[in-house]
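User: Predict the structure for this protein chain, please.
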Amino acid sequence: MRTGKIAGTLVLGTFLATSLAAAQGQTAQEPRSETQGIKETEKFIKEGGDVAHAVGVAKGQVESTLTAYNALVATPSTDMKKDYGKLLKEMKEMDEKVTAARTQVEEMQTAASTYFTGRQAAIKDIQDPDLKTQAEHRLADSQKKHREVVDSLRAARESLDPLRKELTDQVKFLGSDLNPGAAASLAAKAKALNDRGRTSFAKTDQAIGLANDYFNAMRPAK
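Assistant: Here is the predicted structure, written as structure tokens:
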């Protein structure tokens, strides 16, 4: 009797395992819906826009922090303690925004992998050889342009890091010696910092423009 129960259990287990495997196989082979590609594209565009926006926000906050720094150093401050307090608040916001931009830029590649994998799957279902080749060429071109967008955004974001570090050092210097003489002694470094900032901001604007052009071109016309 016990042997019969064991055998029955094994048969049931085998049946369930076979049924599950068959169900999984059916799921894996289910065809893509006619609108799945459109939905994936919309999600990809949104995520790309979010990344470009995050980089823009980071750049704007670095600019704002630099402006607060200039108010304390490049122009005579009538209340150094108050202006320094404002600068510290800007610094905290800058660190948060730049870190958020770094995270989103790095996560952008994951979103791209999902999108392009789905697009490749859709192309496999095209029967006409010429259309399939055309679709493959357009996919390859889109992937190439996307890599350029990612590289540009990453380079722009990375250009903010040395700017942020140098600015942080100068703020710490002032924190240890907050008086007009110390502020005046930073004149040369402040000028170099602002020059570097203009270069970094221009690079960031260019990268954001490239990203916006790429993603906007993917939107269906209304």
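The chain is about 85% helix and 0% strand.
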